Give the backbone structure.
Amino acid sequence: MRKKTSVASRYLPGLLTLVAAVVIWEVAVRAFEISPILLPSPVAVWNEFWRAPSFFLYNAGVTLTVTLVGFLLAVVFGILLAVVIVSSKTLERPVFSFLVALNSVPKVALAPLFVVWMGIGPEPKVAIAVMLAIFAIVIDTVLGLRSVDPDMINLAKVGRASKWQILTKVRLPCALPSIFAGLKVAISLALIGAIIGEFVGSSSGLGFAILTAQGQFDTPGLFVSLALLIAMGSLLFNLMEAIERFSIPWHTSVRSH
Amino acid sequence: MLDITKDDYIRVTNLDKRYGHADEALVLEGINLDVRKGEFVSILGPSGCGKSTLLKCIAGLEDISGGHVDTFGRPVAGPPEGLGMVFQRDMLLDWRTILDNVLFTVELKGKVSSEMRARAKAQLARFGLGGYEDKRPWELSGGMRQRASICRALLTDPDILLMDEPFGALDAMTRDDLNVEVARIWQETKKTVIFITHSISEAVFLSDRVVILDRHPGRIVEILDIDLPRPRELPLRETPEFGRYSSHIRQVFTKLGVFKDA
């Protein structure tokens, strides 16, 4: 029988590590009397957050929205592209070459262009988040769709399954473990994409808050945004893992974990 | 002119199969084989003789390079209706319960009726898998998994059952057990079965006829009628008649150089 890992034993070691790091940080800042302009102590960062919690939370919400929208679009288009690549020999090379070319361009370099095209609203940030996240999803989904045992496909063919049935009932479920591997990488990349977008031109979001804080030598404020980014990134990643455990309880990677 | 009577369920005529175009890539050469309705035929050969490829050509899963393959009097173009297949590995889908796995091929044809569901349960019980309906494949042993996959192949009541080395990955005892099971199923249903194996005793034990293949390229060396009484049980394997068939086949393979010494 399978042993259920409790929530406490799953997350406790990570949390303890985090707490330890924060404590060491606080002690170090006090012991070496480091200037708050260079490295503010955790307590100073905490106080800075409570000076204007709504400002930070609002901007975090903006970044989170851009990240999630970008990620979801990347999931939809990434899986679609992967299916196209796997199903069509004619389209495989062109689509793949295009993706590789796109992925080779540093997104920071594209961000200004996107601002020219789409203005300083959320659109260019979402676009960059999509571009950063989609590649990992396509690569891992293609790998997953291709790694299906040929006899599994033969089984469906002998049952006279349609191409659609083979895709939905065999290929995609078989590919889910790989797809999730891609999604876990992609969710972090989407967040990075959102920040890159905000750096280039915006009036809200954590990227904007970081730039503003830097301009005012407000290092504690900068650290609040960083801390929020770390928290957001960790939460999103853990959320993906939870969805993975829920979706593919049958897979070895989940069962043995 | 070919005269395909109704009783010729499967007719393979001058079948060639090659990968690519070069002559050395010839996998099967000049295969001629007729299988009658209700017959149990084993295809026996060393690894690399193309026996699995031959089965896949009959199933319509592989294109052929020359000759003809007909099932039910019609040329094969893709898997025909009325075919069941069991593979080397059980090919159970990990995310489905055993019951849903067994119903997989039924589900491909449309909604699963409650009658079909009941039939699947009854059949699982007959295969010694009663009570395992809601288990997942990984909770079962290798032998039980392969039982479930045979159960799945039979649920649609196919006229032809193709078995591609189904017990190759199982331990000897489980294998004996399943051989008896297959013999019993055949006795009850009289399906037309083509059974791929590299085990001489398995082939002799199960079959009406054993087709012996040589390799590089795969071609038929001999088709041997097995005239042993049915129903067959394991003690049959200790009889002198059984031994004569086995040693005859062994001699054929020795002559072909499959076995190093006699």
Observations:
- Strands of chain B lie at 8-18, 26-36, 40-44, 66-71, 74-75, 83-86, 160-164, 192-197, 209-214, 219-225.
